[in-house]
């Protein structure tokens, strides 16, 4: 019998879940009886990573291994430097910069395929690994992380349930859980949640996400293109509005579904990977939205870009006005996020759009505080603010989708 | 609460769900469709209907006649076969099977589920020479029309090894969409072996599940074109006359093709042939060759299937919009050669109902756009379909020749005029 190499995309189809569940059985039984089979876990993770990067994707696998080596060297060099009691700012900047160089090169390569940067090849999950390493380097700088166990660090970086697209865990949180088995009561609780999240994920990704993304979206997209071409000018049509809502729903259910799978599988493995979504479309303003949407990413940006920048600017007294400072910090945060999504106009505009939205929101909140007595606050205003926020967010997703680019310039 | 009990509460429902699902999909369910949904399905041209069995079976037993074709079937103007059949209360209704990219191989697979229902019945095939490119069936399009259910039917329906079953299996194996047990089964058939017992068992259960899936979900994504058909039918004269139909065709066509000099539907011209595309297409088809193609053998699979079913088939060979082919540089001589090769393949095996419209490409309003029949073309189609459907049916026997599965035939250059001199002896029994 000849063996067919297969490429399994994480959580892509029912087969994946069957293989996954079979592989998980020893881990689940072990944890239930208070034992954590670390070696088995590692083999299991490696096998599933192998299945992502085998066959014609093997170059990606090689790319991942080289990348890992680079990041390990950077992390341990910086750790060694810090352990010697030194803490120069330039060393910290250098370490962070070096650790994100591969990601930057990959992003440039993706944006300009003709550039052909030698030796650069994107692999699935590079962004999320980079988020994790940068986080570790920053916490080494703060002294919050004093010791990095190589095994734990590798397991953290390569933790396969969250490998391809998050949620982004924190090293210190992960390290506390990954060597011990949870108490049985606690673990049975986890199993209940894991099962619930798994099925919620099925509903989100394979039912609702399918309807919005596979069933309706292509039809709406076709109609929007036809109607847009017929109307001329900015090529606007009602179909475009339908596209906006449909895409937003698709984006949410697909990604939230995926995140639920990742959290669910983590729970089965006795690791409490943080949740990524918390009813984002019920947010009453943009700031709240970012506390509920892709939470681990926005918290990462908050902690490691927004807060860092704010402290830095305060120390250097760059701004006299704190309002101006937070505005600049928001702009920085969302621009970086935009660039991270990809070096294309619509991702960058998407970032700018959210920065401006959150700045306006801040103005409004300050105004509201000043005029508390005159502004009503009741059920109706709450619904109104949810409605407004929802539409602003959906509009930003329309930009994000790249469909406008397709509509106006014929490329995406 | 004890942990064991909690575990049961967590995993019990999951277990029940799986058992329930398995039971539901393995039980032999009965399902009937409403007349309306069959009528919708017949005109919806969705891939779900194409890939399924049950709706087609139901339809063919109730006065529907399969119209196998490709993208021309979606040119639903007032003269479309579906509209005409509806308006003049014909004793048949077309069941449209095919769409963009459904070539012979996809059609052959799609025919697997309805062999019994089409036994001794009639069918219409619109056979486009454009299918006969060097590589034949486009694998991407095949992926769209590939039905695992029909693949199971094909594999489990093979009684004994034959040239055609080997050829078919080899062709299916060339399509990347064919996977899993089906692929392994195809490999055995292609090698002239029988399926293993294990394969047979898996395929039978797979078929049972897929049949149920077909039963549950085939009405799910129907495209409703009935309203469209009814509005189009209103434009037709109340009493049937070819002259009257042609008048409507000319009026409609004149209104819909006034944006360009090719006689191409305005909407098609605007959306598909913008200036840049138009520039690109000029003289782009000079080297097209439909005379040497693996499609000839794929087409033979369809013919063999018809022969097996003793189906009485009307073949219609459409032309290309002449102004368009002159613009793109497509060779008329080559086109006629391929038509003649197709006709030879048909006639030499006893398929004698052939309506060759291939020389009508220069007639005004015959085509809806570049290569698709429309308006007056549909009227011409009806002039063949109407008498064909009126004739009483009999049991048709054909003489199938394995020669048409050979590379030699695929590559054979064919001379115009050789159609009548048939080197292969055939007899037509029981006409």
Explain this structure.
The complex is a heterodimer of chains A (412) and B (431). Chain A has 412 residues and is mainly α. Chain A has two domains: 14-181, no CATH class; 187-409, no CATH class. Chain A has helices at residues 14-32, 38-53, 58-83, 89-111, 126-142, 150-157, 171-177, 184-231, 238-268, 286-290, 295-315, 322-341, 345-370, 379-401, 403-409. In chain A, helix 1 packs antiparallel against helix 2 (38-53), helix 4 packs antiparallel against helix 5 (126-142) and helix 11 (295-315) packs across helix 12. The relative contact order of chain A is 0.08. The model of chain A has no long low-confidence stretch (mean pLDDT 92). Chain B is mainly alpha-helical and 431 residues long. Chain B has two domains: 1-30; 31-107 and 115-136 and 221-411, Rossmann fold (3-Layer(aba) Sandwich), CATH 3.40.50. Helix content of chain B is 50%, strand content 6%. Chain B has a five-stranded parallel sheet, with helices on both faces. In chain B, helix 8 (148-157) runs parallel beside helix 10 (180-190), helix 9 packs across helix 10 and helix 9 (163-173) packs across helix 16. Classes of the chains: A mainly alpha (412), B mainly alpha (431). Chain A binds chain B through residues 184-185, 188, 191-192, 195, 199, 215, 226, 229-230, and chain B through 3, 6-7, 9-11, 14, 221, 270-271.
Describe the secondary structure blueprint for this structure:
The complex is a heterodimer of chains A (412) and B (431).
Chain A: H1 14-32, H2 38-53, H3 58-83, H4 89-111, H5 126-142, H6 150-157, H7 171-177, H8 184-231, H9 238-268, H10 286-290, H11 295-315, H12 322-341, H13 345-370, H14 379-401, H15 403-409
Helix pairs in contact in A: 1-2, 3-4, 3-5, 4-5, 8-9, 9-14, 11-12, 12-13, 13-14
Chain B: H1 3-26, H2 35-44, H3 47-51, H4 54-60, E1 64-68, H5 81-87, E2 93-97, H6 104-110, E3 122-126, H7 139-145, H8 148-157, H9 163-173, H10 180-190, H11 197-217, H12 226-234, H13 242-256, H14 266-272, H15 275-281, H16 295-309, E4 312-317, H17 322-328, H18 332-347, E5 354-356, H19 375-390, H20 407-411
Parallel strand pairs in B: 1-2, 1-3, 3-4, 4-5
